[in-house]
């Protein structure tokens, strides 16, 4: 009882706070929410003067305020955050913020502040505690920018994205000691002079994405944690060669023109290195070491400075022991230098898809113990070598993607150490599956007894007819065998070992044919998704009707109809989606189709493409023309007539026989009738 009382009072308390927005907070135009006011998109030409004086956050985006007039914010003394994006704002009058001593956030993105920037600058200078300023999308040049931010020494975050900045030097960011976040993406920056960021010694994140930077040399921003220079034209990235400690954790160099692996700071805290979509390669094979160096010429005033860099040798010198995420996909790597992974003792995600690798060797010293995700898809791999020393490699590997290569097999013992491997994609490789005799060879893949594996992709491998115990000792949940036209010519036998565990199975185009083999799915009790398309099934496998399938694909088979009762059992209860098109269904036997459509619970995903065969013409089953129905019903009586004609002689014979019997026993029968009537009739 006490409990009930407590819960009631709790409810009341909750209701009470729910009604906290008092009617006095109502405003005709704007939405008031505690100390926040939303007046977005109201065609306002000036700041409303009748808002609560205690307003702390004010959103006025998408209005029509060309000028922010003197003293318009005077009465909002405690205003902390003001947003005036997309207003066509040209001028902020010098006295606009007088009295706004608490303003810490000013968002004026997508306006025309370049028009009268010097006047606006005077206004900004009055904001003594401003921490965050968004000036993106205002057509500002670097000169305008430096005027606008000149005295904002309290600034911590500045966005100058989408402006017209072309070059940066040490005059542009002066006196911003607290600046931590600087966003310069989507400008036209093609040059950054040495010392450009000297005035912002506390900078932690710098975004220079989508500019025209051709190279970064002598990179020396030691305090920087995140550097984003993706989508530029960078061919070189060279950090200064000294033993300074760099705080750099994330470096995004993706979508550039990098020709070499970047020369990273020797001492760094790099965790994420993104190098996707570049032109990187290693050139150790093409020249000897004395030639793999480059000399850089620095012109500083009348001083010329020449420095020499060893191109990729240096890479092994930088300590990448914190690196967890390395993306080198979409480059032109032919090979990896010896001991490339040495020292990468934290690497968890490695993506080298879409390169030109032909072999991959993992040496004894490079244990890759922490690697979870290894993506080597879309290469030219013919061979993978893993040297299994006394210590165990690839211990943590969970996902291994080898899709689209030229592998025939994998190292024999590769899965004996990878105790956590769950997903393997070997699709589009000319692999062989090891037979019991072939196991132990590296010219085939041995999946059997890899207990941890759950998801296996073997699509388009041109597999031979599968043997019966290839999946022994595994408990696969997801198996893709599609596009191996010979794989299941002998039926479902090879899947017996995984029938109990499979949840998703694709046997599209695997040579299944009901005519040749018994297709018994009754053991696949966990199955929820089944793709049987592109086989030559002539009849619906009866055993499916007791499964709990959600999705069933029957496209491109030779089915003439589905059993009328298919949807009355378990299948009808669980099925969500079915694919049926490209089968020669008989237009005159579509009762199953009507039942299915009327069921309402099953989504026929390719409804409009389902056709049926009517005298060798294919007609859309979803709206059969009237004449087809007529022809069918015309055909149907035809059939009864036929049956009548066939039955006629039998009937005649029966009739004659009964007539003879009747005539022979006429007397007794008549007497019997008479006698019965006599007794029963009450005359
Ligand atoms: C706005 O205020 C500034 C300084 O408070 C003053 O110099 C300027 O003349 C004023 N402008 C207008 C249009 O009133
Ligand atoms: C710039 O601002 C001043 C002062 O508010 C104003 O008089 C002038 O008309 C503005 N110029 C433009 C081009 O908007
Ligand atoms: C770098 O900036 C681009 C453009 O804004 C963005 O798409 C990308 O996610 C950023 N990279 C990182 C590592 O945040
Ligand atoms: C490059 O050299 C290494 C060893 O020196 C060799 O294993 C590899 O096959 C070579 N790669 C190419 C593309 O020539
Ligand atoms: C290696 O470098 C030396 C000296 O620079 C040169 O004489 C030699 O031809 C080079 N060898 C190759 C294979 O390029
Ligand atoms: C060249 O550099 C020297 C010293 O570094 C300096 O005294 C001189 O003025 C410079 N000349 C020019 C033309 O800049
Ligand atoms: C030239 O390079 C040397 C050594 O790297 C360095 O000490 C010196 O400051 C550089 N001079 C200029 C003008 O960059
Ligand atoms: C790399 O740095 C880590 C952490 O600072 C250190 O423990 C390790 O010894 C370094 N490795 C090398 C090869 O210098
Ligand atoms: C690897 O990169 C490719 C292409 O950029 C991407 O499609 C794929 O999802 C990545 N793989 C992993 C495991 O992140
Ligand atoms: C495996 O490879 C196939 C064939 O290219 C692809 O369709 C599928 O998405 C891949 N699966 C995973 C999990 O990478
Ligand atoms: C379509 O039906 C006709 C008989 O109406 C039959 O002869 C023909 O083989 C059927 N076509 C297909 C593809 O099954
Ligand atoms: C079906 O009916 C149409 C029009 O009534 C006729 O042209 C066609 O020959 C008929 N087809 C069959 C198989 O009876």
Based on Cα principal axes, name the global outline: flat
CATH structural architecture of the domain at 213-285 and 292-397: Alpha-Beta Horseshoe
For the record, the CATH class of the domain at 213-285 and 292-397 is Alpha Beta
> Runs with pLDDT <50, length 5+?
1-24, 677-683
**Bound molecule kinds, no repeats:** 2-acetamido-2-deoxy-beta-D-glucopyranose
CATH homologous superfamily placement of the domain at 213-285 and 292-397: Ribonuclease Inhibitor
Report strand %.
Answer: 15-25%
Largest sheet: 24 strands, mixed
Structural class: alpha/beta
Radius of gyration: 39 Å
CATH topology of the domain at 213-285 and 292-397: Leucine-rich repeat, LRR (right-handed beta-alpha superhelix)
Query: What percent of the residues sit in helical stretches (DSSP H or I)?
Result: 10-25%
Termini gap: 84 Å
Global mean pLDDT: 86
Task: Tell me the number of strands.
Answer: 37
What is the number of helices?
Answer: 8
Keywords: Leucine-rich repeat, Membrane, Repeat, Signal, Transmembrane, Transmembrane helix
Signal peptide: 1-20
InterPro entries: Leu-rich_rpt, Leu-rich_rpt_typical-subtyp, LRR_dom_sf
Protein name: Transforming growth factor beta activator LRRC33 isoform X1
